[in-house]
Amino acid sequence: MKKQIPLLQITSKIGSGATPHGGSNVYLKKGISFIRSQNVQDMHFSENGLVFLNQEQAKNLNGVSVKSGDILLNITGDSIARSCIVPDEILPARVNQHVAIIRCKNKQDAEYIGYYIQYLKPHLLQICKVGGTRNALTKDVISKLNVHLLDDRCKRATILTSINKKIELNNRINAELEAMAKTLYDYWFVQFDFPDEKGRPYKSSGGKMVYNKVLKRKIPEGWTVNSMGDWVADDKTGDWGKDIAEGNYSLPVDCIRGADINGINGNDRLKPPLRYILQKNAQKILSPLDLIVEISGGSPVQSTGRLAYLIDETLDRFEHSLICSNFCKAITLKNRCYFFNFAYQWKFIYDHGILFGWEGKTSGIKNLLFDSFATKYKVCMPPEKIAQNFYECIYPLEKEKQKMLKENEKLSSLRDWLLPMLMNGQVKVG
After folding, report:
1. Long-range CB contacts (< 8 A, 24+ apart) of 46-55?
2. Which of 263, 264, 266 is closest to 175 using CA atoms?
3. Burial class (CB in 10 A: 0-12, 13-18, 19+), 357
4. What is the pLDDT along the chain (430 residues), one digit of tens a residue?
5. CATH topology of domain 2-151
């Protein structure tokens, strides 16, 4: 049995937030969570890009405090109509003006209502009003939404939640694996405490360090200093092809854009567009142990240069062969032993904001000056044996991560298939 009730009758709050004075310049790396539209994904919350406020900034936004069980709904921009339940782990929190808070009178209904709003997403995308240059969902539109309250709604929500919890568990395991890999990189290549010939931490055990004039610091004896470009054997330019097979444009490929790098890395779902390229451009197809660098894009708080790398298990997540779009560059290294060493060296550079200094602009779009950076930026390079040992440590972790990401994609597809049938009462729940 189901009852159709306006959302306003089953919620105690529908409201959206604001941005503190100073915008992105006032965001912190820790404090009170400040939720933006990029954090609200379809049926899950992403901590990727989560920023924070201090106590005074948060106090000025007390009217948009988020509570346990609140539903978050994006109401403007390209991510409009994405929704999820706020995770307790990131509380206390506030939201900006692009995110609405929907709070149920009965917290037990929150999961079901959250899924029902996701079920209504196609409808929301049709009814959103045009305000200025953006589509927007207003408080009035949201409050008039009708929700079917099924008698067994809690059971229906539980089915979907069980799938989401498995996805979240996989994501937590992957986060731990990534943290292990980063810690190992830092231990070996930043602190220089890689295992010496006797298995002891090199620098801490008195391993010889030599001052390098180029880097202006000491590095382990036997290590060399060169440019990032010295590691690279070849690169593959992008190709956009056509959106339908036409004439000689007959080779189907999944095209990796900057927007897809997070998906490869497990921070978003994979949504690369299917394109058709010329058969003669098959040499642009990416291979295992290629690395993909975003060379155009970024934002004021995010530089260009995001990186993704490919192993066999990564490619296994895609239906077709991969190519880069024209906004990315794929590179192949001279020596596969240095694959993970290069990847984590690049991530270290990116995470420390160094690539901001190697950007130019064309027609308002930021571009990474890749050739200049690769030629001029100097790093220390370990002997091949150490790089090989690091490769052998990291590869099993990355292999496991990619397998879990593939499982997550299957689980997400199952959840998306079940969602409408559970919400409209098409299937019975025992």
Report:
1. 46/267, 46/268, 47/90, 48/262, 48/267, 48/268, 49/302, 50/90, 51/24, 51/27, 52/27, 52/28, 53/20, 53/26, 53/27, 53/28, 53/94, 54/28, 55/31
2. 266
3. exposed
4. 567 788 877 787 887 777 776 656 668 778 999 999 989 999 989 888 899 999 988 888 888 899 999 999 999 888 899 999 999 999 999 999 999 999 998 888 999 999 999 999 999 988 875 444 457 888 888 888 889 888 899 999 999 999 999 999 999 999 999 999 999 999 999 999 999 999 999 999 999 999 999 999 999 999 999 999 999 999 998 899 999 999 999 999 999 999 899 999 988 888 899 999 999 999 999 999 999 999 998 777 788 999 999 999 999 999 999 999 999 999 999 999 999 999 999 999 999 999 999 999 776 789 999 999 999 999 999 999 999 999 999 999 999 999 999 999 999 999 999 999 999 988 888 7
5. Adenine-n6-DNA-methyltransferase TaqI; Chain A, domain 2 (3.90.220)
In this structure, which amino acid lies at residue 254?
Answer: D
Q: Which amino acid is at 108?
A: Q
DSSP 222: T
User: In which element (H, E) is residue 177 found?
Assistant: helix 153-185
Which residues touch 196 (CB under 8 Å, ≥6 apart)? 202, 205, 207
The residue type of 86 is V
The CATH superfamily assigned to 182-382 is DNA methylase specificity domains (3.90.220.20)
Compute the distance between CA of residue 182 and CA of residue 205 in angstroms, rounded to an integer.
22
The dihedrals phi and psi of 98, each to the nearest 5 degrees, come to: -95, 0
CA neighbor of 10 nearest in space, from 143, 127, 124: 143
Instruction: Say which amino acid occupies 233.
Output: A
For the chain, the structural domain boundaries read 2-151, 182-382
Please give the structure tokens belonging to residue 344: 């984590």
Which two structure tokens, joined as six digits, stand for 36? 């933006």
